[in-house]
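Re: the pair you flagged

First of the two:
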Amino acid sequence: MRLSDLAISSIERLAPSNSTILELGSGFGTEILLNKGYELISIEQNKDWQFKHHDNYIAAPLKKYKDYWWFDSDYLAQIKNLSYDFLLIDGPTGDPIPEFDNCRIGILDNLHFFNLSLPILVDDINRKDEKVIFNKLSEGRKSEDFNDFGLIY
């Protein structure tokens, strides 16, 4: 799957082209956003997607934490020093191992890596864990729930 057209237009509404987007998970939407003039920094665990659309990737494997998998935090320390204008949460993905299915929930234990004062899009909030992430990050902020993705600003 890729980001919906409505998700893309919602990003455009909140971040002008030439803005820098930090995206968790790279995919077909990455190329669309690049073609619309955005700069992207992509965090990706899947070697098939790393460096596929641009050369500004953080290649971070998944690591087991408590009862979930998430990006290995040893690879994420550099995020604190990055400048970006928008946070896009669309990864990591669970493929190809079913045990990875709840891998996005790990962001909640790793929020200290991210600038949460910026606009945020959480994709796939029609799923239980992504909805939990959206609800938590929405606390005290304006947000919009579009059923399959949510915006926080």
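Second of the two:
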Amino acid sequence: MLRLLDRFDVAGVQVRYRSSPRRLGRHTVDVPQAFPQINCGVLLYRKCPATDALFRLWIELYREGGSTRDQIPFREALWRSDARFYALAPEYNNCNVPLLPRKGPLPLILHINWLHSPSPTRRRIANLLLMPVRRRLRQFQRFGHRPVRPAPR
């Protein structure tokens, strides 16, 4: 993933359900619908003047807008910035546990709050729901693919 930063300044995954009214909210700038919000839970960026300016503008828009969500001001800041952006595939920020086995790509980054919940019950439920993903991952590894290590806590 880090090789992307040789060519781009910022990378992130577009939010799911991009056309819902909640996802099309705006603060100060009328951003085209074709430029969706980015899920800010997983961002890849490099330190450079363009990202410094992007993050300063994001903070400014967030504070002046009184928003409780970071994605609307980030979308506007990214639209107004000179930072080169790359949209990562959805498996790089999977916010949902796939309940049924799918043929699509395996999640590479799970962004699921329940996995880190203080509640043991929630953690158990999340781990049970992840069993099909783990099974697919083991099958994937049997064919010689490198395992993906979980991020340290």
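The chain has a mean pLDDT of 79.

-B.
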